[in-house]
Amino acid sequence: MRCLNTGLRHSAFHMAKTVYNWSKDLIVCTNGKKILTVEQMNMLQRKGIKVYEQKIKSLIGGNGSLEAVIFEDGEEVKRNGGFLTPEWIQATTFGQSLGCKTHELGGIITDQFGRTNIEGIYAAGDTSVIAPSQVIIAAAEGSSAAMGVNTDLSQDDFN
Ligand SMILES: Cc1cc2nc3c(=O)[nH]c(=O)nc-3n(C[C@H](O)[C@H](O)[C@H](O)COP(=O)(O)OP(=O)(O)OC[C@H]3O[C@@H](n4cnc5c(N)ncnc54)[C@H](O)[C@@H]3O)c2cc1C
Q1: Does residue 55 sit in helix, strand or coil?
Q2: Domain boundary among 60, 85, 110
Q3: Is residue 138 within 6 Å of ligand 1 at its C-beta?
């Protein structure tokens, strides 16, 4: 498959390595952004993955299939499949409003039992871990946070 990967920030490099498992005919488009380090560019180049840093004008195709990428400078590259790397952001900021500390992606920092830096506030799932986010991880974190809540409430009786 002639494949395209277009994405933002460091996740684009990660995605390029993942997609390379499936297709060796791969290009990376950063859509006008300089998001890859020189080291990353060299690594991709050594694998024959060309990086296009110019802005994309359009993606063309038919019947739901990609056929080519057209760049703003007029260059056209034939492709028949592609992956987009989205940028993840937290949908809500109520954690910050409550004074909870967050990490660089905006998730609420917790210990392994969902405790935040604010006593009585626990977090689990996508509010704390935005990537990788999976239902099974969120459910497991919810279970751990429930243990944290129960442990702390039980402990209260002995304080
Ligand atoms: C496009 C997409 C595809 C995905 N595909 C997969 C997949 O294939 N497999 C997989 O395992 N995971 C997948 N995930 C991730 C998975 O959906 C999440 O990790 C999981 O749903 C997180 O569960 P959660 O309970 O933490 O949050 P959520 O499921 O987001 O639940 C939070 C709930 O809180 C509600 N809420 C928000 N703010 C407030 C408020 N102020 N007051 C009251 N309620 C509020 C929301 O409406 C929502 O119902 C995908 C996620 C996305 C976005």
Answers
A1: coil
A2: 85
A3: yes
| Omega before residue 132 within 30° of 0, cis | yes
Question: Does ligand 1 lie within 6 Å of residue 143's CB atom?
Answer: no
How far is 87 from 9, CA to CA, in rounded Å?
8
Ligand 1: residue whose CA is nearest its atom 27? 126
Q: How many domains does the chain have?
A: 2
Do 113 and 70 have their domain in common?
no
Cβ neighbour number for residue 92 with a 10 Å cutoff: 10
Nearest ligand 1 atom to the CA of 135 is 11
**pLDDT at residue 10, as a whole number:** 65
More confident residue, 117 or 15: 117
pLDDT tens sequence across 93-103: 889 999 999 98
pLDDT score for 74: 96
* Report field, pTM of the whole predicted structure over 0.90: no
DSSP state of 127: G
Q: Does residue 144 form part of some domain?
A: yes
Do 118 and 135 have their domain in common? yes
pLDDT digits (tens, 9 = 90+) for 68-84: 999 999 999 999 998 88
Measure 126 CA to ligand 1 centroid, in angstroms. Answer: 6
Distance 15 CA to ligand 1 centre (A): 22
